[in-house]
Write a structure and sequence with these properties.
With 370 residues, the protein is of the alpha/beta class. The protein contains 15 helices and 15 strands. The protein has two domains: 261 residues, Alpha-Beta Barrel (TIM Barrel), CATH 3.20.20.105; 102 residues, no CATH class. The longest helix is centred in the last third of the chain and has 28 residues.
Length: 370
């Protein structure tokens, strides 16, 4: 029997951590899973064949930026986002809510939506729940998000309440505007760092009965402890039989700690952004490849890593490429970091099934210097 998109089946448990399978229009997604950020339909310096080689199952794109260029109508006429970027895996799109946080001025935020200047032309654009879902429906990603407001950090309790109340009203409008049953629509919990607001937002968002849920408004400047507290507050309200996504998290240790709490899905710019700054993840710690200590180091970045950077090149050569500002360095280091994240998610799924998640957590914490 084929399950409809959004169906989530648990396959293993270890404490609160869980493995599962989320059904999508482009096949099953094994969780826990990580989504690299392909904001404009690509990861800088990589193509989709590169991404496929890492073993990652899914990527997330930026609906707002794709609507600006080339336009969701152009992508729809090309057969949708999967075909446009030649990606056979799963795709998610955000709602544009992060652009409310990062690009819009408070005075341009109203009950209707938010006015944002186009980063391409400078003209004013109105982004509303209805417009956001229209864009995402035309792009055709597997996982789509309600339009939400990501409150800034820090903010006052009264502002955070007004923000999450508006997000709830926008969630209802997003659900009404959503037109494609083959796409899994996520409700988004907000509430900043205030436990009472987080709990209320989670409870009321779940009452709207979405097929999946996101915890938003974290990794926006708060401390790691505040992020984890927000996750801890929200999770008891989120249904066991729905996939749970923490947006914008994060570091390898953040991911492990959230998985141990019962989170299934993650996205973050860190592995590829850090690669472009010469920071490389390995199981024995992070390397800063621009440092002169690597100038004559004949070792690979990581013994046994299957990525092309490790299979073919020394740290010395990669250090040289990076110091020369060669784009090839961005490509090779990005591939390595994505391979590391893919391996981390695979090890997490295995550790949950084998009951040794604490052991893996210790290995990651030692490698990350925590």
């Amino acid at each position: 029997m084929t399950h409809p998109p959004g169906n989530f089946t648990l396959t293993a448990r270890s404490g609160s951590a869980r493995c599962g399978v989320l059904e999508t229009a482009h096949g099953p997604l094994d969780t826990p899973a990580f989504m690299p950020c392909a904001s404009r339909g690509l990861i800088r310096a990589l193509d989709t064949a590169d991404l496929e080689s890492t073993g990652l199952q899914i990527a997330i794109c930026n609906a707002f930026h794709l609507s600006v260029a080339p336009g969701e109508d152009v992508i729809a006429r090309q057969g949708g986002l999967h075909r446009f970027i030649d990606w056979g895996g799963k795709l998610a799109t955000d709602s544009g809510g992060y652009q409310v946080f990062s690009l819009a001025e408070p005075k341009n935020l109203t009950e209707e939506g938010v006015r944002i200047r186009s980063p391409k032309t400078g003209e004013w654009l109105l982004l509303t729940p209805e417009r956001s879902l229209q864009i995402q429906n035309e792009l055709g990603a597997d996982l789509v998000m309600c339009f939400d407001e990501c409150a800034p950090f820090p903010c006052e309790h009264d502002y955070a309440r007004a923000s999450f109340e508006r997000t709830l009203r926008w969630a209802e409008r997003s659900r009404e505007a959503h037109q494609r049953p083959d796409q899994v629509l996520f409700g988004i919990v907000q509430g900043s760092v205030y436990p009472d607001l987080r709990a209320e937002s989670a409870e009321r968002t779940v009452a709207l009965d979405f097929p999946a849920y996101s915890i938003g408004g974290v990794s926006v400047g708060e401390s790691r402890e505040q992020m984890l507290e927000a996750v801890d507050t929200c999770l008891p309200y989120l249904p066991e039989d729905r996939v749970r996504y923490v947006m914008g998290v994060g570091t390898p240790l953040d991911i492990v700690d959230c998985v141990m709490r019962g989170v299934d899905l993650f996205d973050c710019v860190l592995p590829t952004r850090n690669a472009r700054h010469g920071l490389v993840y390995t199981w024995s710690g992070t390397l800063r490849l621009k440092n002169s200590a690597h100038r004559e180091d004949e070792r690979p970045l990581e013994e046994g890593c299957p990525c092309p950077a490790c299979q073919r090149y020394s740290r010395a050569y990669l250090h040289y490429l990076f110091r020369q500002k060669e784009v090839t360095a961005w490509r090779l280091l990005s591939l390595h970091n994505l391979q590391f994240y893919a391996g981390l998610m695979r090890k997490l799924r295995e550790a949950i099934g084998e009951g040794r998640l604490g052991e893996l957590r210790g290995e990651v914490a030692r490698g990350m210097g925590s």
